[in-house]
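lol ok so funny story. i was supposed to be doing the assay writeup but got distracted and ended up predicting the structure for this chain instead. priorities right. anyway since i did it might as well share w the group, maybe its usefull for someone
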Amino acid sequence: MNQLLLDAATKKGRPIPGQSLTTDPKNPAPYEKPPKFTSIHDASEHIFQRLMERDVYIPLMQVLSDGVPIMDITQTLLFKGFTEGKWTPDLMMLLVEPVTYMILALAERAEIDPVIYRGEDEDEAEEQELFGKEVNAEKLKQLKARLTSGKIPRGIITPEREQELEELPTITEVQSLLSSQKSEEDNMEGEESGSLLAPTEEVMQ
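and the output, tada:
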């Protein structure tokens, strides 16, 4: 019986009642401290700047071209920021739409036709999950309609950011960069293999 209660309490990742009281108050988790960002504007600027950095932008474009839904990426990015203490759960929810638009703008710049959310073509799906909570599919359809309209709301991306967008590589250029990087890595591995085999060849001669 106790195990059944435990299973019920922990279903879908919910914390065990009283679990927060067991943490060390002298060493709180990042999300238990005051958040780094308290406004949508500041948090959005931080996120967009990070998304345009090479080490994030290139793999992001790759996963978008592979069909990973924008909403999945948005949830992962925002939840990670929450666990790092960057924003509260309330601000995290408010950031969903602007961050989705940001990723859509990046996808458009890279000439990628992205998937908006998982199961978007399944008409029978009435509910979708957002951060582990069920969200009415109609709300997501409305968001999708706004996203696919091609009109990004004013203020989501500033003129300065729009100029920076123009300097980002397209998916073709991204794939070329990844291909070049892989070739360099293969060449380095080949050189290392050759150096290890060299003494053996000398002995054989």
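The mean pLDDT is 74. The beta strands are 127-130, 133-136.
back to the writeup now i swear
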